[in-house]
Specification:
- With 212 residues, this protein is an alpha/beta fold.
- It has a single domain, classed as 3-Layer(aba) Sandwich (Rossmann fold).
- 47% of the residues lie in helices and 21% in strands.
- The protein contains 10 helices and 9 strands.
- It has helices spanning 4-7, 21-33, 44-56, 61-66, 85-101, 113-116, 126-139, 156-164, 190-193, 196-211; strands spanning 8-13, 36-41, 70-73, 78-79, 82-83, 106-112, 143-150, 168-172, 175-178.
- The protein has a 7-stranded mixed β-sheet. It has a two-stranded antiparallel sheet with strand order 4-5.
């Protein structure tokens, strides 16, 4: 079983999100082979792209979706246009329970944070959500996922807070690394989250990703 830090990963990048689809499709394929139900959440255009890349790496998309092993969706858990952390967490809890009751070994999910938080760009609940998701994953080893952070779209403050809430960073389908900037909630301070060292680290991740 994966270590906890490898079950709550963030992916930080700039540029067209379609560039990330081959790696995400490869991971999704592997999770399907491990008898995990897989959930991909993004815009309609990205969902269509994900279907294509999954098919290209050998997944029978129609069959997996018919079996509900694979869920590709653009549904947003918004309340009056705003992201609601409790509603999203409740949705994930229900999805995990259903996956287990349907005979899957677990639930693996990945979503684009910009899409999940909706068109109003209100990221006031982002850190609370990530911390509560972290706690949920610690208590439920059957679940894992990757939170996608697009650095040239998300506000830098949201990027910093998102980075500090993840114990592991997704680099590629074959590589994840421990996050030296990770802060448990009891160690979090506003000063630490606004440090220029975080910006330097984020920029370094973006530069490395561009070389992949």
């Amino acid at each position: 079983m994966e270590q906890h830090c490898d079950r709550h990963r963030c992916m930080i990048y700039e540029g067209a999100p379609s560039r990330q689809l081959p790696a995400l499709a490869a991971v999704t394929r592997d999770k399907l082979r491990e008898n995990q139900r897989c959930l991909y959440l993004n815009s309609p255009a990205m969902v269509a792209g994900m279907r294509s890349y999954l098919a290209a790496c050998g997944v029978d998309v129609a069959e997996e979706m018919a079996r509900s092993s694979l869920i590709l969706t653009s549904e947003q858990n918004l309340v009056d246009g705003h992201f609601d952390a409790q509603r999203m967490l409740d949705s994930l809890k229900s999805a995990l329970n259903l996956a287990l009751s349907d005979g899957y070994s677990g639930l693996w999910a990945t979503g684009d944070m910009t899409w999940e938080f909706g068109p109003r760009n209100d990221f006031s609940q982002l850190l609370e959500y990530e911390w509560r998701l972290e706690e949920f994953l610690r208590s439920n080893p059957e679940m894992g996922g990757i939170c996608q952070y697009r650095a040239d779209i998300l506000p830098r403050a949201a990027m910093r807070r998102g980075l500090t809430a993840h114990g592991s960073i997704f680099v590629s389908e074959t590589l994840s690394v421990l996050n030296p900037q990770y802060l448990r909630p009891e160690r979090f301070t506003r000063e630490a989250a606004d440090s220029f060292h975080l910006d330097h680290f984020i920029n370094k991740l973006i530069a490395q990703e561009a070389l992949n």
